[in-house]
Amino acid sequence: MFGFFEKRVAPYPIEEPHLPPKDFMAFVWDGTRGLRGHVVAMAALSAAIAVYEALLFAVLGHVVDWLSSVSPAALWAERRTELIGITVLLLGSVALVALQTSVKHQVLAINFPLRLRWNFHRLMLGQSMAFYADEFAGRITTKIMQTALAVRDMIFTTTDVVIGMGVYLVTILALLAGFDVRLLAPFVLWMVAYGLACWYFVPRLGKVGKAQADARSAMTGRITDAYTNIATVKLFSHTRRESEFARAAMDAFKLTGYAQMRLVSQFEIVNHILVVGMILGACGTALWLWSLGQVGAGAVAAVTAMTLRVSGHAHWVMWEMTTLFESVGTIQDGINTLTRPRAVVDAPDAKPLQVTQGEVKFEDATFAYGNNGRPVIDQLNLTIRPGEKIGLIGRSGAGKSTLVNLLLRFHDVRSGRVLIDGQDIAHVTQDSLRRSIGMVTQDTSLLHRSMRDNILYGRPDASEEDLQAAAQRAEASEFIATLSDLQGRTGYEAHVGERGVKLSGGQRQRVAIARVMLKDAPILLLDEATSALDSEVEAAIQQSLDGLMQGKTVIAIAHRLSTIAAMDRLIVLDAGRIIEEGTHAQLLAQGGVYARLWGHQSGGFLGETDEEESSALMPG
Predict the structure, then answer these.
(1) For residues 57 and 116, what is the distance between their CA atoms, to the nearest angstrom?
(2) What is the CATH number of domain 8-338?
(3) What is the C-alpha to C-alpha distance for residues 211 and 221, in angstroms, rounded to an integer?
């Protein structure tokens, strides 16, 4: 039976992820997309169960009256029909509860948050690089996980408390009126007082719940940041500093927790006072009416049972309301992140990129970080011919990496265009664009998966033969054969740790090179591609890179000028503009900035002194 209900909802919808609305209630309602029929069914079943439960108290009253008016020997004979009806009623409630539980727990409890997380995760994967520069990875993960649960819990609480408890109280009031209208007074007074208490405490719990959610996210972000950068923490002996940094966030979280628990304690005390008043008032009124002979013993028994049951519900509702507003705070904390529009999106008419030759062109391209920042790329014009190999040179901040990022469309140009084979990259799909470009960076990060998975990331459908050939060409096969992990996996099956921390910088870079070799894209970007390799390995791998570059359009960035001196053309950048271009020999003959840098470097790196001098030499 459970399996049937578990399959009623697909937890991973195939449609494209959609951006939820920013309005709070609209956000929550949007979260029920694809589940609304089941949510309505759960609410209807909860209401039916509430009616059933309330009716049991009326039945109890009638049974007490029967016991006081009928002899034990005659009970079955005189009340057989009623007793059978009560039995059927109770058995029917079992089926009702089983159905409601199956809808709630089997259909919704797991699938509801999974659907939301699936949508949120895909939305976040589509965010721009600028988005990730502004957010902690740990905070994003926390918001995805907790917001999904909070939306589900809010729907469940609303169904149980607002609908279930609301129907329950209305039914009880109707039953009490059937005994004697005067029995309503204590319950109505309690409901008004309880409503006022909720009106006072619940909004305050909501505010402190949001503050606590913010503090929890900040605490999680700080702790995750320390783990992510653990090598830096240890290198500078800052474990104590990081502990104190995390402790400050924990203290902030602790204070919000104390504030919340103060309100909860106050609410619980007030709630208990109100419950005691209701019990005394309701039971006292019932006994008074019984003493006057205006209600029977059954009414007194029913009122007493109802009162005790409602008092228990009052405590339950209090905790549910507390949980509800914790959920409200968590959702409010997540909305700003999870509803942020993507900065870089495919145009409505975007088509797959068709790379036929590999020409790359920047036309009056201008770009700046932030809304009012100075241009990092300033009206730049550059054409890279099909199959041409160029090297980008310039001091830090000259715009080299930004130019590459614009080609990858990690950012959109402010003005101008970037074209590949005459196609404006703003009007092609991002996936097709990046499938056509291979890149090796100086800061290579690997996924915490097997070595095989990391290399196959370049081309998931590659054969085993192609995989191993790429590893051999990248001079990586030898060290891969020696790998092992704590689970006993070895070689290509060994996992490499988060961001590839189990490998040296040179090993990670060789894996990155193998990945790009396997991808074999028509446009190749090399950003300090061999910076983490020792001279011997670099020399061995350079031949493979030379082979990889054949027939491709190549853009290479390197501070070590000797690694790009053989390129077809060298481009010297400063402040986002081209100040020199030509072959290595031509630029040396000009005796300009490049020649001076080459002289200072003597085949080495572009150091700080060189950068400062080049900056002074370059026109402002």
Answers:
(1) 40
(2) 1.20.1560.10
(3) 15
> Count of alpha carbons within 13 Å of 187, Cβ hemisphere only?
25
The residue behind tokens 């919000």 is 256
Q: Is the CATH code 3.40.50.300 the one for domain 446-515?
A: yes
Phi, psi angle pair for 555, to nearest 5°: -120, 120
Among residues 209, 490, 218, the alpha carbon closest in space to that of 332 is found at 209
Domain extents for the chain?
8-338, 349-436+521-620, 446-515
Query: What is the reported pLDDT for 607?
Result: 46
CA 258/CA 459 separation, integer angstroms = 52
Distance CA 180, CA 184 (A): 8
- 63: enclosing H helix or E strand: helix 36-69
Question: Given strand 423-424, what is the order of strands in its sheet?
Answer: 377-384, 360-367, 415-420, 423-424
According to DSSP, the residues that pair with 554 across neighbouring strands are: 389, 524
Buried-exposed string 391-421: b where 16+ CB fall within 10 A, e elsewhere:
bbbbbeebbbbbbbbbbbbbbebeebebbbb
Q: What is the pTM of this model?
A: 0.76
The CA distance from 457 to 502, in Å, is 18
Query: Which residue in 112, 138, 107, 104 sits closest to 124, CA to CA?
Result: 138
CB of 381 closer than 8 Å to CB of 573: no
In DSSP notation, 102-165 reads IIIIIIITTHHHHHHHHHHHHHHHTS-HHHHHHS-HHHHHHHHHHHHHHHHHHHHHIIIIIIII
Taking alpha carbons only, the member of 168, 161, 210, 162 closest to residue 187 is 168
Q: Tokens standing for 138? A: 């740990």
| Separation in Å, CA 181 to CA 51, 195, 304, 306, 524 | 20, 21, 16, 15, 84
Helix (H, G, I), strand (E, B) or coil at 10: coil
CA 467 from centroid of its chain's CA atoms: 32
> Comparing C-alpha atoms, which of 413, 544, 377 is closest to residue 473?
544
pLDDT given for residue 602 in this prediction:
59
- State how far the Cα of 369 lies from the Cα of 130, in Å rounded to an integer: 9
| 184 touches 322 (CB < 8 A) | no
Fold observed for domain 349-436+521-620: Rossmann fold (3.40.50)
Pairwise CA distance, residues 292 & 297, whole Å: 12
Q: Are 42 and 168 in contact (CB under 8 A)?
A: no
Q: What letters, b where the CB count within 10 A reaches 16 and e where it falls short, cover 53-91? A: bbbbbbbbbbbbbeeeeeeeeeeeeebeeeeeebeeeee
């405590």: which residue's tokens? 315
Cβ atoms of 579 and 380 closer than 8 Å: no
Q: What is the CA radius of gyration of the chain?
A: 35
Assign 348 to helix, strand or coil. coil
Q: Mean pLDDT, consecutive 10-residue segments, the chain of 620 residues?
A: 80 88 94 92 92 82 70 69 78 86 92 94 89 81 92 92 88 87 91 89 82 85 85 85 93 93 90 91 90 85 86 83 82 90 90 95 92 85 95 88 93 94 95 93 83 93 94 90 90 82 81 90 87 68 78 89 88 92 93 87 49 35
Side-chain-facing half-sphere of 388: CA atoms under 13 Å: 17
CA pseudo-torsion sign 544, 550, 556, 559:
positive
Q: Are 8-338 and 446-515 the same fold in CATH?
A: no
